[in-house]
Amino acid sequence: MPGTPPTRFVYLGPEGTFTEAALRTIPAAERGLRTPARSVPEALEAVRAGEADAALVPLENSVGGAVPVTLDELVTGAPLVITREVVLPVEFVLGARQPTPLAAIRTIAAHPQASAQCRNWLRANAPDAVIVDVLSNAAAAISAAAGEHDAALCAPIGVSRNQLTVLADKVADHPDAVTRFALLTRPGRPAEPTGDDVTSLAVSIRRDQVGALLAVLTELAVRGINLSRIESRPTGEQLGTYVFFLDCTGHVAEPQLGEALQGLRRICADVRFLGSYPRHRLVQEAPVPSPPGLANADFADSAAWLAQVRAGETA
Amino acid sequence: MPGTPPTRFVYLGPEGTFTEAALRTIPAAERGLRTPARSVPEALEAVRAGEADAALVPLENSVGGAVPVTLDELVTGAPLVITREVVLPVEFVLGARQPTPLAAIRTIAAHPQASAQCRNWLRANAPDAVIVDVLSNAAAAISAAAGEHDAALCAPIGVSRNQLTVLADKVADHPDAVTRFALLTRPGRPAEPTGDDVTSLAVSIRRDQVGALLAVLTELAVRGINLSRIESRPTGEQLGTYVFFLDCTGHVAEPQLGEALQGLRRICADVRFLGSYPRHRLVQEAPVPSPPGLANADFADSAAWLAQVRAGETA
Amino acid sequence: MPGTPPTRFVYLGPEGTFTEAALRTIPAAERGLRTPARSVPEALEAVRAGEADAALVPLENSVGGAVPVTLDELVTGAPLVITREVVLPVEFVLGARQPTPLAAIRTIAAHPQASAQCRNWLRANAPDAVIVDVLSNAAAAISAAAGEHDAALCAPIGVSRNQLTVLADKVADHPDAVTRFALLTRPGRPAEPTGDDVTSLAVSIRRDQVGALLAVLTELAVRGINLSRIESRPTGEQLGTYVFFLDCTGHVAEPQLGEALQGLRRICADVRFLGSYPRHRLVQEAPVPSPPGLANADFADSAAWLAQVRAGETA
Amino acid sequence: MPGTPPTRFVYLGPEGTFTEAALRTIPAAERGLRTPARSVPEALEAVRAGEADAALVPLENSVGGAVPVTLDELVTGAPLVITREVVLPVEFVLGARQPTPLAAIRTIAAHPQASAQCRNWLRANAPDAVIVDVLSNAAAAISAAAGEHDAALCAPIGVSRNQLTVLADKVADHPDAVTRFALLTRPGRPAEPTGDDVTSLAVSIRRDQVGALLAVLTELAVRGINLSRIESRPTGEQLGTYVFFLDCTGHVAEPQLGEALQGLRRICADVRFLGSYPRHRLVQEAPVPSPPGLANADFADSAAWLAQVRAGETA
Q1: What is the largest CA-CA distance in chain C?
Q2: Who contacts D47 (Cβ-Cβ below 8 Å, separation ≥6)?
Q3: Does some domain include residue B182?
Q4: CB neighbour list of residue B58: distance below 8 Å, 6 or more residues apart
Q5: Prediction ipTM score
Q6: Residue C65's pLDDT band (cuts 50, 70, 90)
Q7: How many beta-carbon pairs under 8 angstroms link C with D?
Q8: Which of A62, A79, A154, B159 is most buried (CB neighbours < 10 A)?
Q9: How many domains, in total, are found in chain D?
Q10: Do D286 and D195 belong together in one domain?
Q11: Where does the record place the Prephenate dehydratase domain (chains A, B, C, D) (predicted)?
């Protein structure tokens, strides 16, 4: 029911990963029911089927890039919309069953994306350890707790859940690395604009990439809309056919973005609206101002002027 | 009073020129009062002052180009709008007091623009005649009637008014040459769209010509608006500062042109609306279809889609 | 013969107009032979026929706009190129046979473009005088000298030639009004770049105005070329078909403009090169700097980089 | 040594995957030395260090999208260039130790990307089997051969290497799915153009996405260059900062692409050339023709014209 805050949350499991940590930053989720799902498709299916009110899944990582399965799921099946984003600093910990000098560690269990983001740190601090690929951050922690490996590279939440000892914390090659998560619900009227919002879209273009992509960007540029993200994903049909995921500055209820959306709708093979929601900023910074003449107030002014011209009241 | 058909017409005189001939193609003017003015500014002033309901003045000629004084007058002083255009084939006649073989003519009175449009014809048919510049087509006819010159290059209407004999008719280097006239009134609600309309604008841009003019054309192109005319006029301030006169396909009441107009309003230093009115076609030809996705129906469709998205009814 | 300075000059006459005054600012013309022509076409024909080395004709006026006959002549007939521009302040004088109080003047002879540029001054200073149209500034001075009219609005040079008394000087509504003249010769290798040059072009586009003109401007913008002038002229074929006259910043010998010219050549129906020559500045002002990455040095750098990439020396 | 065909090949291992199969389609590799590497970085490091002449690694999959690690490696460390691409149909097989009815299979080992590409097939044909994630296609085959799981979803080459029985072949949800591999070497002069080439680039833009990406695409569009691929990857610095991977039609030795490359070099923060090489087409289809005026011949024509203009030979 639109307007009713969600109470039943599902998230990409297992328990003890960054996604659970991200979910728990949302007060309603901290109070509500939290159920891990085995995969992103399973999480989204739970919302589509009405078994959950909202799903939290990872969208992208500032080092590893987009999470393909999430993007692919968002453009197939029944529509879902993003109602909230959560940006979480990526800070791995190195955990072990007991205190161990780094030099004594022979094997470290890690999800390949985790070890990729800590490659330099591992090379500098545990040069002799063998990195063993496992299938999730949680699996890494569990395997270290079970004694299968000497240590695990995992999320802080994995340490507490498995009673591990922290050998090193804030492990990351990029100190500013973050992961961005999306809270997805069934479609409903978006919340009111806050003045610092993001609107997510999936846009399918026809095959002539240069011309069609130029046209998409021109529709945005003409209305002064900026992009904070652009990702291409294959449509699965053939090489070179893409759907683009765009994160635009602004809110669908605003005239500026509304006009741009209409323009995209006219020229693109398909546009799927994926939600307007407040931007989550870890560091407070002012939104980028609109180019001259392209603020929402200018759109209102030009609409008023056109009304006068149409009425013959002015020329 | 908007809606009331004009009955008092003023036009660029003197009597006996192409402008009077153009005015008399308008039924209401044929029935109404027709007063010649000594100049374009005088004609327009009469309408601004309420002494006339409408003024017919030349806008451009397919050979000679724009009529600068008309353009300059349209962007200074109180606003006026074009409510009708008249396109008239340019066909001069060579008239004289009595029948004369062309070879016997020694002097021909002609307005410089008239002789310029008939240069090749004159060279071929009256190679020995001296062309004497006079200040209007009507003055040419009058001077021939007065015996000051052997013949006059003038409008057909000048022959009948001055009891001249036609030595040659349909005189013109370009058989398809036309002059385009505008009927100007005080601002009022434009007539309904006909499906084949023109909208005239005067657009002032800031000094960076390439960037600013690119931006203007992009606002039009993005909405599928085509131009049938573009003229630049200096603003009088310094070399390189222009106001552009644009004739756009479409009507201000249509969504396509309305959105483009708002876009121009936002980015230009100034936009003056100069009227939406039916295109006058001498030869019937179908209007150019809109590019794919950019017809008025597509604008209506995209507006309906946006309304749904905003209501949360679809995504 | 390219490289030989011209010695025989022709100019738009009659004697005693601004064009003669402009010609005499060129040292070689002050020393050489100066012959007035009756018209712009006659002046250009003299150069084409080899009877003169160079012709000075007016190109545009900051108030009155382009001089259509000059533009039309530049795109028809054998090619000519601009080798020099002269910019002259427009300062009319009011001359009479004898000293006369302004209030006592009943008739003033004036070329219509001259009276148009002094309309406000005349209204304020000689409100009761009748303005009588004549066919040139020189004709105005001559008619005043002949006693046909009480005074003449003319060029300073017309006063001295006709022994008139100056009743008022620096007469002009726009104190900064200027006229720009072009010195035309038969084609030859352009002089070396000076760092502050203009390149003039005549560009014919196909009928889809918005798209074709956008493409022309994009070719320039992509290379950081700015326009100091853009004028459209009808081709004479039908309404809505234009040739555009462009004055670009830069010199044909420079890589930046050279690449832009090649781009125009590829996409336009026709491009006529009308010369690269030093910009004449009445007031010293620095040339506009190129946008970031688009200076001539950047073109040289990118060419060197490409040569390395092609040689496999770097990637 | 540029020009010397490679003889020592390294590829993304383990043995028995699609990458090995792709490598063996290259005659020189079939004859030469083929060494599996444990990871893409390890394979590329071998070439950089001179221990191998060329490395074959996966670039992208028409269903799964880009292979992030390959893209990231291509823009860090010493430059490597693509000298050849191999496109291979994706056809998984379901293999087992002995012939087994599909209905009797309880567990299937599969790499997550493999099971994702066969999800519908698995649901339809083995609805009751549990899919067990493993870390590579080869690992899946090995685990089935070891009896750890009832069957494996793997590459055909994995079946023969592990003496498995084929329960089903050509398993794939998208019958046209392909994987594209790149053969990488140290930089050298590219092979001659074939008339149907691809040029790969990595382009870093500054932060204003819409404007900067518009500028990149405009540089290509103005020269008639089309894109067959565009991928964005985060730079790792912060969300919203990207490097774009572009596959352009054409060859660096051609004027059309050469000019476009220079344009990108001028406006982008960084451009890395990743090679010009023949397009590998599974199905013969004609290359897309250049837009009017933008073929290589038109570039040659416009260069010749400019040379004439600069020499003063024509105007």
Answers
A1: 85
A2: D10, D53, D54, D55, D80, D184, D185, D186
A3: yes
A4: B12, B18, B19, B40, B67, B70, B179, B180, B181, B182
A5: 0.84
A6: confident
A7: 105
A8: A154
A9: 3
A10: yes
A11: 8-186
